Amino acid sequence: MARRCSGPAWRGSSLSHERPAGERVDFDEAVGYAALRLVGRYPQPHMKHRPGRELCLSDKRTRTAPVTAADQLLLKKPCAACP
């Protein structure tokens, strides 16, 4: 869904009980984007209400913000090569 990533605007999320996971990240004005990570629970019965993450990437110029699944953004265990 195309919405802004602030206030109740992340309601385009498919998660239930969604909430921001940290602060919004504003990119440089030349880029014109802001990102907000959301956390919540998948409401679908087959997902058994597992925790989930989504990313809201807001385009400041067009004032649209698609929300997409982002469970892969954080590793469950850090990699061996990561500092």
Give a description of the structure.
The chain is mainly beta. It has no helices and five strands. It has one domain (7-73).
Question: What is the compact description of this entry?
Answer:
With 83 residues, this protein is mostly beta strands. It is built from no helices and 5 strands. Strands 1, 2, 3, 4 and 5 form a 5-stranded antiparallel sheet that branches.
User: Stretches where pLDDT falls below 50 for ≥5 residues?
Assistant: none
Principal-axis shape equals: globular
- Could you describe the largest sheet, including whether it forms a barrel? 5 strands, antiparallel
Number of helices: 0
The number of E-state strands comes to 5
Give the strand content. Answer: 25-35%
| Assembly of the depicted chains | single chain
> What class do helices, strands and sheet pairing give?
mainly beta
Radius of gyration computed on alpha carbons: 14 Å
The number of domains = 1
Write down the overall mean pLDDT: 78
Helix content: under 10%
Order of helices and strands: EEEEE
Beginning-to-end CA distance, first to last residue: 36 Å
What are the salient characteristics of this protein?
83 residues, mainly beta, five-stranded antiparallel sheet, single chain
